[in-house]
């Protein structure tokens, strides 16, 4: 097993023009390892990228992306990566992963981090207690469109037909106007779920670094010229990610969300992408889980790991939002929730 001692570095990928080309060569890389996502996080919340990397014969051999988060409310810590569904460490075969972990821990101690959070990478922590458990879903887009359609559950197919016969129209956009429209839907959706929305500046950075750079697309569903549902997708290499979805519940019976997803699947098939990740799902969110399984998605586990520097051990994550808080948030006006979100998420990453 190779040592990383001589070729170990801590860097900011945003200053490396060929970063995306290099990580695209590593197995299991995703959009979340890209420069674009790093820029969104650092520009939106002033987080500092600390990407722990090693090289083997001048070739990138391992990457553990971490954001250094400083907060007077929640303390200082390293997260790989905040507001990210999953972000496995990318470590080539034969590289000593334990040595990399020890380097990260030493850096964390030197910089007074409270903990380090890894969103994925369970094979590198086989005996660790996960801090959180989620379900992941992935659709294989390598098949032809008719074959993928056959994999859809009958209920999902019926909902697609319902949306079509109801006159729902679907359009794909890479404009700031479309991002703004999605943000409006996102705000009312988050209120329904009892959560404040991410601040608008976060979505503006998504537009600037992702959508306008053709690394993402906004899909909107309209009914009688009214936008009633939408989704935001990212892509990198030959892999796509469904990152955000939102809708107006007043039009739920029209099943626009189903048509949004199916049209997006067809769009990515035509562009010869190989897979579509549907992100993470809380195990207790049965409705969202069934929605994703309805697309014939493969289900797998996503585990997060939190290493506490004080105890020197992996620990469970405390509950972030209590049912009581969720109930209160759901009663507040959207304008108030926007204000809360603008303050809250900078410290919650």
Automatic annotation (TrEMBL):
One Pfam assignment: Acetyltransf_6
GO molecular function: aminoacyltransferase activity
Domain annotation BioF2-like acetyltransferase: ranges: 152-281
Source taxon at top rank: Bacteria
Alphabetical list of Gene3D superfamilies matching this protein: 3.40.630.30
Keywords associated with the record: Acyltransferase, Cell shape, Cell wall biogenesis/degradation, Peptidoglycan synthesis, Transferase
InterPro entries per record: Acyl_CoA_acyltransferase, BioF2-like_GNAT_dom, FEMABX, PG_Glycine_Bridge_Synth
GO biological process, any: cell wall organization
PROSITE patterns listed in its UniProt record: FEMABX
Family statement: Belongs to the FemABX family.
Record-given protein name: BioF2-like acetyltransferase domain-containing protein
Source organism (scientific name): uncultured Desulfobacterium sp
Lineage: Bacteria, Pseudomonadati, Thermodesulfobacteriota, Desulfobacteria, Desulfobacterales
């Amino acid at each position: 097993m190779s040592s990383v001692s001589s070729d170990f570095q801590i860097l900011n990928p945003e200053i490396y023009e060929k970063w995306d080309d290099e990580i695209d060569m590593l197995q299991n890389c995703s959009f979340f390892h890209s420069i674009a996502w790093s820029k969104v996080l650092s520009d939106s919340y002033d987080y500092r990228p600390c990407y722990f990397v090693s090289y083997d014969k001048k070739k990138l051999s391992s990457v553990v992306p971490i954001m250094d988060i400083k907060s007077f409310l929640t303390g200082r810590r390293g997260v790989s990566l905040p507001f990210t569904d999953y972000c496995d460490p990318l470590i080539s075969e034969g590289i000593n992963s334990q040595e990399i972990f020890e380097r990260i821990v030493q850096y964390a101690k030197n910089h007074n981090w409270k903990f380090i959070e890894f969103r994925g990478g369970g094979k590198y922590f086989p005996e660790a207690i996960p801090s959180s458990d989620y379900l992941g879903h992935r659709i294989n887009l390598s098949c032809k469109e008719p074959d993928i359609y056959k994999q859809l559950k009958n209920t999902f197919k019926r909902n697609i037909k319902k949306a079509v016969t109801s006159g729902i129209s679907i359009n794909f956009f890479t404009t700031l106007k479309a991002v703004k429209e999605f943000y409006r839907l996102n705000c009312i959706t988050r209120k329904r779920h009892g959560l404040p929305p991410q601040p608008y500046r976060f979505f503006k950075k998504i537009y600037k670094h992702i959508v306008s750079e053709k690394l993402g697309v906004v899909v909107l569903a309209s009914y009688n010229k009214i936008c009633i549902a939408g989704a935001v997708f990212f892509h990198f290499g030959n892999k796509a990610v469904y990152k955000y979805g939102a809708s107006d519940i007043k039009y739920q019976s029209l099943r626009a969300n189903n048509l949004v997803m199916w049209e997006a699947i067809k769009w990515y098939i035509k562009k010869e992408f190989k897979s579509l990740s549907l992100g993470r799902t809380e195990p207790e969110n049965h409705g969202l889980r069934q929605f994703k399984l309805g697309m014939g998605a493969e289900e797998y586990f996503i585990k997060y790991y939190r290493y506490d520097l004080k105890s020197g051990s992996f620990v469970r994550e405390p509950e972030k939002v209590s049912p009581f808080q969720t109930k209160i948030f759901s009663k507040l006006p959207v304008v108030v929730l926007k204000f809360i979100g603008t303050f809250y998420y900078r410290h919650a990453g």
